[in-house]
Amino acid sequence: MKIISNLIIGIVLLISSCSKDNNQNPGTINPGDDPNFTIVSHSDNGFSSFNRKVVVFGIDIYAVAAVEDSKLLHAANIMAQYLDNDEDGNIDNQSVLDKMIENKAFLVMWKKESDLDIDPPSGRKGQDLGNDETQPTFVSNGKTGQFDAALEEVLHIINNAGHSDAYPQAFGQNQGSELANAMDIARGGQFLNIPNTYPDNAWYTYDDPTCDYETCQTIEYLYWALTSMLGAQENRFDEIGHEWKLNTGALVESTDTAIFELLTNPIYKMPTVLPDGTYKH
Q: Which among 21, 110, 144, 178 counts the fewest CB atoms within 10 Å?
């Protein structure tokens, strides 16, 4: 997760509501050719620098003009597949989506980091995703090459604005939740601040000093564990091993039994299939 993401994820943005913005970027909006989602223009408060959006089950995905239409639609399909993982047209966990809608969750897609200099209205939870880090061919290429960050950032906003609020005892981003307790085991102890070195027995060793215990470390841990179980990390150990060592589902199941038990609890209806960006409903 980039530093700029750390400023966004996990924060209910408490910026004063902006007056309605009607000065959208000029130009024709291409609706795209996706069978499920349409790119549309908008005049949403606080997002005037984003000239278009796609709405997925009530969740806004905004994009600046420089973001490719194909990548905007790819992010929409990834979100749909995470939320409706069996692709039967019904949300797998309505409580999670309800919380996302209650939190007015959104994703913003950017080309330059300066695109993130925005003032969303108060009470909205957001996450960002870069155009160049969105790689639709990652899964189809055998999960090799540049990683598709849409698999990470879309999951972050679902976890942050959905799971953490729908199930605070399980997925709360605070000391004592089941998620945090499992993370403490994975890090070899409870570290409210990044330690100088992690214990030798730790398998989650994220050392970004901007990533705090509650709003960042927990969500990153949840991402690593779930996507490893889904198979997204199986060819990436050399790239990610300094931060996360359990890069396969088998390793998570055999080593991190606490998070495996949490994520396979049928109550939460977590995804069991890795999205590939082709929502088929």
A: 144
